[in-house]
Structures are given as structure tokens and as C-alpha cells.
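Figure 6 in text form: structure in, sequence out.
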């Protein structure tokens, strides 16, 4: 039985594995944790965590479980096996919740503003 996260034949999991680094880094940053803080809480060294966040290496199941617990995420959220099939960061979830509170007219305005921003902003600009 494989102890890695990328299990063959599971399309959603395989797709999620390509995004795992992004997901792990986003989850850590959304919780205002540094790599050093993650190391202190889990024992995972910075170089190893950096490898996970940059898709150079994959955590084993025990390490994956540690990170999910620390980041307060479920495996379904990360692997995209839940109902939505994709990972949503805490910041993205906040945007969704705020958007849903707006009246219909304001929603259209927000969408138009976001479209304008994304069109005018060069790729890679942070």
C-alpha cells in the first residue's frame, strides 16, 4: 500500500497533487504562520517544508495529517475530493462570503472592478 499522497487512478487527487505546494503555502500564509513556526509546531524542517510548497517533494501520510491538523483543513478540501472539487483558501472563502452579502447591484459592480483590475495588472505582479 503506497504511503504517498499521489495514488494512481484518482484523477482528483492527481490534479490536487500538482497544486499541493500552492495549497500548503496558501494555507500556511492564510494562518499567518512562517515556515519556522510550522517547524516548531510539527518538527518539519524549513528545507523539507519548502520542498513541499514548491512541489519538489510530497509529504508522507503522517506529515500530511500533521499539516492538515495545523492548518485546520480536511484532506477532502486539499485533495479536491469534496463536492466542489477544488481548494479554496481562507482569503478566497472570505471574498465569497463578503460577495454573497452584497445586494445584486453591488455584486455586478464588484465583478466589473475585479475584471478591470485583472485585465490591467501584469502577470506576476504582486
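Output sequence:
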Amino acid at each position: 500500500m503506497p504511503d504517498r499522497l499521489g495514488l494512481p487512478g484518482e484523477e482528483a487527487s492527481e490534479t490536487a497533487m500538482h497544486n499541493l505546494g500552492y495549497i500548503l503555502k496558501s494555507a500556511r500564509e492564510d494562518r499567518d504562520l512562517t515556515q519556522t513556526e510550522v517547524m516548531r509546531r510539527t518538527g518539519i524542517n524549513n528545507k523539507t517544508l519548502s520542498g513541499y510548497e514548491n512541489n519538489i517533494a510530497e509529504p508522507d501520510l503522517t506529515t500530511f495529517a500533521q499539516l492538515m491538523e495545523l492548518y485546520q483543513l480536511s484532506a477532502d478540501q486539499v485533495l479536491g475530493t469534496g463536492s466542489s472539487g477544488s481548494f479554496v483558501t481562507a482569503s478566497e472563502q472570505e471574498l465569497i462570503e463578503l460577495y454573497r452579502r452584497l445586494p445584486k447591484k453591488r455584486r455586478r459592480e464588484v465583478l466589473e472592478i475585479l475584471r478591470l483590475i485583472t485585465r490591467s495588472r501584469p502577470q506576476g505582479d504582486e
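Caption detail: Confidence is low (pLDDT under 50) at residues 1-13.
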